[in-house]
């Protein structure tokens, strides 16, 4: 692909996204737009390709599958789920305590967020009605996925530490706010402009209404940049008032996955996340990695500042960020950061506070290392994962447990 080809593709994509015509995008998600129900789902995250733990679940016969009607759990499914209950420490409630810590306010109106035409682009309501805290998994649902879904229902605005806040449950991903000397820096502005705007409004309802002075994209998947126009005016970016930071290769890879391969990735996402299924025990029980993806307007503003070095220090709005590039890991263009001031590490999708390393929790992507971190083991590309995880040891002593865990796949 030549630079000219990329430039043309970027221009076309930005034009399409600005007019809402974009038909498919890829992320830790890529979603078919205008699907029959809302919210829609997104495309594949490498995370979801984990090898399952526990005994294999026998395949159903092709005759059963072709019937196409919801059925109760078979004997084989019940046995497999019962075996899983012996494998995982379901009595351990630490993840729930961690996910609830710092809650300021749940999302208003059961998380329902509407677009300009009044259409619902996001809602937690069907999930909240179905997934209840403390209840045992339905027989048709993998108990580990059920537990993860219960964690994902813990939503709203959270204080990670004083000065750092996070909105969870307003889209597939979380949006983080880091307060600086002049205003606030937003990290990963969700999938859609509507959900990102709503998340910012929830933050402003509880924190001083200071301007957004910078945005950081952690990686080239759409759930980490698609809502940027909901929180930033492009004119302010062009004038230099607002800076946008991204890892090296961000635009090239965002286009490659979201435009060139967008349709195929969107289709794969539908199969993987079950986004066209109804939300119930015989349909979809969240996307695992997150609840699902929003169906609002996907947008993009090109970065103004690229993090090109393996390790790079920047001061953004008076806050020191130690960036660590992690290309070729969960996304082809991806980076993590460490904030010494707060002793916080944000690992994007590469390591998460996780339900025994199954997938990300509602506290995804933000770990306070001085307490504990449960990291996801390497999945599809162990060598690249390890290459970029190793340098996190330089963040010791706080980061050391994370780096070791992510390499070894050991919980806590
Ligand atoms: Zn991703």
What's a quick, concise take on this entry?
It contains twelve helices and 15 strands. With 412 residues, the protein is of the alpha+beta class.
Description:
This protein is an alpha+beta fold and 412 residues long. It has a domain at 3-47 and 88-306: Metallo-beta-lactamase, Chain A (4-Layer Sandwich). It is 28% helix and 16% strand. It is built from twelve helices and 15 strands. The protein has helices at residues 3-18, 62-67, 75-87, 94-100, 125-130, 143-152, 193-204, 234-238, 250-260, 262-273, 382-389, 400-408, and strands spanning 103-105, 113-114, 120-122, 156-161, 164-168, 175-179, 184-187, 212-216, 243-247, 305-307, 311-316, 319-325, 335-339, 344-346, 367-368. The strands form three sheets. The protein has an eight-stranded mixed sheet, with helices on one face. A five-stranded antiparallel sheet has the order 11-12-13-14-15, with no helix packed on it. A two-stranded antiparallel sheet has the order 2-3. The longest helix is centred in the first third of the chain and has 16 residues, at 3-18. The protein is globular and about 60 Å long. The N and C termini lie far apart (43 Å). The model is unreliable at 15-25, 29-66, 353-381 and 396-412 (pLDDT under 50).
Present the secondary structure layout.
Blueprint: H1 3-18, H2 62-67, H3 75-87, H4 94-100, E1 103-105, E2 113-114, E3 120-122, H5 125-130, H6 143-152, E4 156-161, E5 164-168, E6 175-179, E7 184-187, H7 193-204, E8 212-216, H8 234-238, E9 243-247, H9 250-260, H10 262-273, E10 305-307, E11 311-316, E12 319-325, E13 335-339, E14 344-346, E15 367-368, H11 382-389, H12 400-408
Parallel strand pairs: 7-8, 8-9, 9-10
Antiparallel strand pairs: 1-4, 2-3, 4-5, 5-6, 6-7, 11-12, 12-13, 13-14, 14-15
Helix pairs in contact: 1-9, 11-12
Bound molecules: zinc ion.
Zinc ion is lined by residues 28, 45, 219, 221, 330-331, 349.
């Amino acid at each position: 692909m030549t630079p000219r080809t990329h430039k043309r593709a970027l221009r076309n994509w930005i034009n399409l996204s600005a007019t809402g015509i974009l038909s498919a995008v890829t992320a830790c998600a890529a979603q078919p737009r205008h699907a029959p129900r809302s919210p829609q789902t997104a495309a594949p995250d490498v995370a979801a390709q984990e090898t399952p733990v526990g005994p294999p679940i026998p395949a159903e016969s092709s005759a059963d599958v072709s019937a196409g009607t919801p059925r109760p759990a078979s004997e084989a499914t019940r046995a497999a789920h019962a075996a899983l209950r012996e494998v995982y420490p379901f009595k351990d409630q630490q993840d729930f305590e961690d996910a609830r810590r710092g809650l300021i306010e749940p999302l208003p109106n059961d998380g329902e967020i509407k677009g300009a035409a009044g259409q619902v682009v996001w809602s937690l309501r069907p999930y909240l009605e179905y997934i209840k805290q403390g209840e045992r998994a339905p027989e048709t649902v993998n108990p580990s996925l059920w537990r993860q879904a219960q964690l994902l229902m813990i939503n709203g605005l959270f204080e990670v530490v004083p000065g750092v806040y996070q909105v969870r449950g307003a889209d597939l991903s979380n949006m983080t706010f880091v307060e600086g000397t002049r205003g606030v820096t937003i990290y990963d502005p969700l999938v859609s402009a509507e959900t990102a705007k709503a998340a910012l409004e929830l933050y402003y309802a509880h924190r001083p209404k200071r301007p957004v002075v910078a945005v950081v994209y952690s990686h080239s998947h759409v759930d980490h940049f698609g809502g940027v126009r909901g929180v930033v005016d492009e004119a302010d970016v062009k004038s230099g008032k607002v800076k946008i930071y991204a890892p090296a290769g961000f635009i090239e890879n965002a286009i490659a996955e979201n435009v060139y391969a967008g349709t195929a990735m969107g289709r794969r996402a539908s199969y993987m996340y079950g986004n066209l299924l109804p939300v119930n025990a015989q349909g979809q029980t969240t996307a695992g990695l997150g609840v699902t993806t929003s169906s609002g307007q996907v947008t993009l503003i090109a970065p103004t500042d690229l993090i090109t070095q393996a390790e790079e220090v920047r001061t953004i709005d008076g806050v020191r960020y130690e960036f660590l590039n992690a290309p070729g890991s969960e996304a082809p263009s991806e980076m993590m950061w460490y904030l010494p001031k707060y002793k916080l590490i944000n690992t994007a999708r590469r390591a998460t506070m996780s339900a025994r390393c199954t997938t990300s929790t509602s506290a995804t992507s933000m770990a306070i290392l001085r307490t504990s971190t449960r990291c996801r083991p390497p999945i599809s590309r162990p060598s690249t994962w390890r290459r970029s995880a190793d340098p996190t040891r330089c963040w010791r002593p706080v980061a050391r447990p994370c780096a070791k865990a992510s390499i070894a796949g050991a919980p806590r």
